[in-house]
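Pasting as-is:
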Amino acid sequence: MSLELFPAGVLHYALGGLLIGLGAATIYLATGIAAGASTFLESSLSYVSDLPRLNRASYVASRDWRVLFTAGIVAGAATYALAFGEFGWTTAVSAPRLLVGGVLVGVGTRLGKGCTSGHGVCGVGSRSPTSIANVATFLAVAVGTAQLVLALGVSP
């Protein structure tokens, strides 16, 4: 079964997980802040927005290194693409559906007060009851949505 699920092996997934865990631990140990990508992106917007919720004192005080973190996510993907020659779309899902999905993920991130990296990696690791409940909700909704889409015969 694992050969079906992971035809290219599991090593690169394990290395990716290790790097994510090390990055989250490093940020937490250095700053005391859980490394949630959605909050990091939101705090980066304080450079270009006057909205009070984007200009909280904690955001403004830490936004320089948070911008570096956010840029590092993009740079990491670009480095991977350059190193392994994997450019362009890697999905059969159409651009409009990806856009709608991205908007829904953004709305869900705000409603859930964080993203899967913040809740799933940092929150569950610190045994936060809120994060555990959020991750359980994320997974239940994802499984339910996948089953619904499958039952409706929706294709990319």
